[in-house]
Amino acid sequence: MLYPQSNRFRQQVDLSGVWDFRFDPQNEGDQASWQSGFTGARPAAVPASWNEQFEDGRDYLGVAWYQTEFTIPWGWAADKHSISVRFESVNYSAEVWLNGVQLGAHEGGHLPFEFDITKHIRPANNRLVVRVDGELTPDRVPPGNLASLMQQEKQIAFEETNFPAGSFDFFPFCGIQRPVTLIVAPREGISDLTVLTDIADRDGRVRVQIKHNGAGEMTARVALKNTDSLAEAVINDETKEVLLEVPDAHFWSPASPYLYDLHIELVQGTSVLDEYSLQVGIRTIRVQGDQLLLNGEPVYLRGFGRHEDFPVIGRGYAPAVIVKDYALMQWMGANSFRTTHYPYSETMMQLADRLGFLVIDETPAVGLFFANEGLEQRLELCKQYTKELIARDKNHPSVIMWSLANEPHSQQYQAESSAFFSPLFDLARSLDSSRPLTMTSYIGLQEPAYEFADVLSLNRYAGWYSQPGQLDEAIPVLSAELDALHQKFNKPIIVTEFGADALAGHHAQPPEMFSEEYQADMLEQYIQLFRTKAFVIGEHIWNLCDFKTGQSVRRVGGLNLKGIFTRDRRPKLAAHRVRALWTNPTTKD
Ligand code: GCU
Known about the structure:
Blueprint: E1 11-14, E2 17-23, E3 42-46, E4 63-70, E5 81-87, E6 90-91, E7 93-98, E8 101-107, E9 113-116, E10 126-133, H1 147-152, E11 175-176, E12 180-186, E13 190-200, E14 203-212, E15 218-224, E16 230-235, E17 240-246, E18 260-268, E19 271-280, E20 285-288, E21 291-294, E22 297-298, E23 301-305, H2 319-332, E24 336-338, H3 346-355, E25 358-362, H4 375-393, E26 399-406, H5 414-431, E27 437-441, E28 455-459, H6 471-489, E29 493-497, H7 516-530, E30 536-542, E31 547-548, E32 559-560, H8 573-582
Parallel strand pairs: 23-24, 23-30, 24-25, 25-26, 26-27, 27-28, 28-29, 29-30
Antiparallel strand pairs: 1-12, 2-3, 2-4, 4-10, 5-9, 5-12, 6-11, 7-8, 7-10, 13-14, 14-17, 15-16, 15-18, 18-19, 20-21, 21-22, 31-32
The chain binds alpha-D-glucopyranuronic acid.
């Protein structure tokens, strides 16, 4: 899926701003024809979650309606251009109308979708209406409101202790949470690009697969700016691959995130119909034994699990917060993060390429369970999300691994979980054989999906949820478990979550749980332990920042306090202690 861009053939218009908004708790909008427009609206910011914008919106996860109006961008010509509207993320599901005509629907937040509106537009006063549904249900992903089902299954329902009842530990923010863009493109143009890179000694190779939506034969002219690498190929309706050789190439890595400007022109006869530019990083990534090799060299992942989370905007798109979080991660000496627990914004991914971060790119499949109710639907959604995520992020050099789920509840459903993940891993491999696959488990040894993964991602909180307050007990337990896990699966391991809650400003000597000292000690002891395990290839602290959760006895102020920075990005003691470890030359690389 191409990201919107402006050039001599393409134009984009950002519809961000203040839209009309209305809650629909009685679900009356459908009958009352709000699809063509509605009254009784209040102003709401787009993009942003609705939950923290209003006094009466925080816990509302039902149906709400948005509307805005736009005029057609100048220079648009019906015989030359198509025009579409692209939503980068609406959570949880959206139905969209233009001038009263239904364009379509999309289920699942955090991944983009778009509709062609060419046939439905008029010069001015185009009314775009969006019906958003944020409800938590067992047959959605991520699921919620499972309490009754979990009781039948005799499982302690995390949801029973959590309001709103999400089967996951973050607030289920809803709304139009990333930009909405009008896209003007040539009627016959480039429709998709796939870039695969390889290295041989000091030379780079860039394979470019090109799709177009034009009629008949066309020619693609492909060039890497600032190099002599260019190629030309005739393409027809199926994909065509073009190869660019780059002698003595600059390879992409965290230490040197060199990006080439790839430029493609689509030509028919003597006319150029379309053009598209893409930044390309030449690198390879693969697992070899117990190592993760970047450009043939072992690499160690130091970083974080995060959330897209900030006061008032909730899960809303915030470039300043994105830039700030990268600055904090660079200050810490980090080189990696996992997109917990959903795909992050496209801006976040572009900056990972530019700043040199190694990303484990995770689908929204968090909190999965395998009781029969809704199981088929949850698998279908996980397949949809996997396809959409790979289609969106496949060309980022920073994406080094796909994670197909976080913490599925597989314990009592070994066979069902294995039957669920086997086709999911097959699908991901069929879509992208160039990257290793993982999934993130809290079960460990008994996790069925580890059989299919190239790398094992493990979340562990010994010293917190187990052996509470007893780090001396916890570290040996963790050490033994890591050895047993490696012994059983003989695959490299990333500890993708470890951490402790710390109330900023709360101190204790000797350290005790919820003090900054305890959090710092726990992280330090985990990191020192990982340095003794050659098969541990990465450490991601949970979490970079404190973040909003549902209300529960486990979450003071409705916050998860495992951040080493507060929710407004101020450092705790742990930030300084971990930074000293990660910027120390003896850091494990
Ligand atoms: C889990 C989960 C996180 C959660 C964390 C915690 O590992 O993946 O989403 O926030 O535990 O309990 O703090």
